[in-house]
Amino acid sequence: MSEATLHLGQTLRFDGDPFVDGLAAARHETRGALLVENGKIQAVGPAADLRAAYPWADQVDHGDGLLLAGFVDAHAHYPQTGIIASWGKRLIDWLNSYTFPEEMRFGDRAYADEVAGRYLDLLLANGTTSVCSYCTIHPSSVDAFFSAAAERNMRVLGGKTCMDRNAPEGLQDDAKSAYDDSRRLLEHWHGRGRASYVITPRFSPTSTPEQLEALGALWAEHPDCLMQTHLSEQLDEIEWVKGLYPQARDYLDTYESFGMLGEKGLYGHAIHLETREKAKLREVGASLIHCPTSNTFIGSGLFDMAGLKSAGQIVGLATDTGGGSSFSMLRSMAAAYEIGQLRGTPLHAAELLWLATAGSARALHLDNSIGNLGVGMEADFIVMNLASTPAIAQRSSRAKDIWETLFSTIMMGDDRAISETYVSGSRVAAKS
Ligand code: GUN
Ligand code: ZN
């Protein structure tokens, strides 16, 4: 049993989805509090009320710091940590030139351990407390990821990337070994501590129909697991998929016809969707994951956030490290804003913050546990410094409300804006 601790500061939480309910979905307290005990949030509300109700609790006063749920990164590739910000290639050449050679190194468990630890520490420094990551084809890369997360007590999701064609020799499995290895890893890791296993075919160009079918069977046997893959990221990729699957109606159909479409499916990028694909994704309630820094960095295109959200699609936000050019969800929010601007539909600060927390948690089917400050939620939260640099301080000093203040940190902030990160109620990262 841990001591009850009352964290005092500004607080921001969500009662709903601001894309649907507007600003009424957001609850900001200038002087609020969180009561944390046994790794969970036991109470939340105005500081004066909680102080009076829990006089015995230890108190930690964060002053003007903003208490917010830890960020949830709904799509990343931890093995690409070392090749982030690699210059000059579009998707297919980028995979062949930078990604695949780096992913080959993860057969070495010691290297996988080193990168997994470094990656998760970078996330915590950036205020991200949960991530849904691809590993490599090597089962040991999955063990390294979940072990590093368990050492830090983080709620993470991930799985072995499956590929049995169009990848270098040494980075391919086959339909049977992909099924067998994924099943063994799933049985070992899914639900162990805070880990969730995610069935992970990389994308239809690197899987044979036989492999997709085998993984579709595995998913049907474990319907409580999520499945993650990539969908309609670049135009060249879509043409390639049409050539590889001549019978398919569209890109989504290459998953659908092998049992790889469902409510618990996560489809990364989803930029160039056809009308049928959008209707089908919405009908099944699948999650689309927006990866804005990646989509601009690799030159993929402009995700239609406003159109997809107003049609009722479920959308999460992600870095897509290392196609994405930053580990920071603040940077991802800024890029999502800029893409919205290019489409003529700017996103509000409340919408951006919701996407990076409760929205991504919803997309990952974890919104009852993480991504918000609510009674009974796991105590994964951050303290944000809303004046972390002179540039931000001078802009927020003339802000007329909390949204303008937050927007200057969203657009100009980085890891310096994350004063402290708490996982399960314990402080795991802090700026000196
Ligand atoms: N499509 C298939 N694999 C990848 C990957 O590693 N990164 C990105 N951005 N897109 C992909
Ligand atoms: Zn990806």
Automatic annotation (TrEMBL):
Its EC number is 3.5.4.3. One of its GO terms (molecular function) is zinc ion binding. Residues 32-55 form the Aminodeoxyfutalosine deaminase/Imidazolonepropionase-like composite domain. Its cofactor is Zn(2+). One of its GO terms (biological process) is guanine catabolic process. It comes from the Bacteria. It is an enzyme of class 3 (hydrolase). CDD domains: GDEase. GO terms for cellular component: cytosol. It holds the Pfam family Amidohydro_1. The keyword Nucleotide-binding does not apply. Residues 67-426 form the Amidohydrolase-related domain. Pathway: Purine metabolism; guanine degradation; xanthine from guanine: step 1/1. It catalyses: guanine + H2O + H(+) = xanthine + NH4(+). NCBIfam families: guan_deamin, PRK09228.1. Catalyzes the hydrolytic deamination of guanine, producing xanthine and ammonia. Belongs to the metallo-dependent hydrolases superfamily. ATZ/TRZ family. This is Guanine deaminase. The lineage of its organism: Bacteria, Pseudomonadati, Pseudomonadota, Alphaproteobacteria, Rhodobacterales.
